[in-house]
Amino acid sequence: MPAAIVESFISAIEHHDLEFALTHLSEDCEYDNVPMGSVNGRDAVRATLAPFLGMFDAIEWVTTHQVASGTAADGVVMNERLDRFRSGERSLELPVAGLFVVRDGHITLWRDYFDKETLLVAMAALG
Amino acid sequence: MPAAIVESFISAIEHHDLEFALTHLSEDCEYDNVPMGSVNGRDAVRATLAPFLGMFDAIEWVTTHQVASGTAADGVVMNERLDRFRSGERSLELPVAGLFVVRDGHITLWRDYFDKETLLVAMAALG
Question: How many structural domains compose chain B?
Fold first, then answer.
């Protein structure tokens, strides 16, 4: 099921295991942060995510709604999330809607919709 | 099917028939534009949408992905859209991810995720 692949991917991120998370992506996966631009390929996703995720002691992405169609060979997953990040005593919470296109058991497109200003204001508050 | 309710709702908006669109919403429907706030109830949705939609000669919401689960009695629909609006020679396009919770044949929650700055810059360009 495509949802299981997405859930395993997110669980790996929550467990600070970016390398395992990346194995869920196709080699040429597109990762699109809609208001901030997109990158292509596992290496580019690693380069984008590693510095960001490395800022935080705890990561929890709470999925509030999720719907999926198709199979792990050809499927689509969308979820609504509250992406929570904690650094010491401070934390950040970002409302996100994500789209995941799954082909042949791997995520080929990961597109997150959120408000850029909401993220930047929350990042600035972390100090 | 919950997707049919959402598609009929969007079709009514595209046809400038806001009153018919509103019949797809529950009386106490929450309409949440994530970066801009939410309103509750058909009257409040009308008051929010009518001035905005009235600015445009043509409205087209292109659904690029859609997934749904459940039934019209208890279902969830998420879609990825390019919401296009045209006024005279000028047009605006906003990437959106939408969540629709459907209960008893009506949309009880409509939540759109997008980047506020993208919308405001596009609105300003309309002149």
Answer: 1
Residue among A65, A76, A117 minimizing CB distance to B76: A65
Q: For chains A and B, what is the number of CB pairs under 8 angstroms?
A: 73
Domain that holds residue A90: 2-126
Q: Catalytic positions of B, please? A: 83, 112
Instruction: Evaluate if pTM is beyond 0.90.
Output: yes
Provide the ipTM. 0.96
Using a CB-CB cut-off of 8 Å, the residues of chain B touching A99 are 65, 80, 97
What digits encode the pLDDT tens for the residues B22-68? Answer: 999 999 999 999 999 999 999 999 999 999 999 999 999 999 999 99
Closest CA to B102 of B70, B55, B64: B70
pLDDT tens per residue, range A35-84? 999 999 999 999 999 999 999 999 999 999 999 999 999 999 999 999 99
Q: Compare all CA atoms of chain B with the CA of A3 and give the residue at the minimum distance.
A: B67
Best of A1, A33, A67, A82 to substitute, by most chain B Cβ atoms within 10 angstroms, is A67
CATH of residue A59: 3.10.450.50
Q: Which of B77, B98, B118 sits opposite A35 (nearest CB)?
A: B118
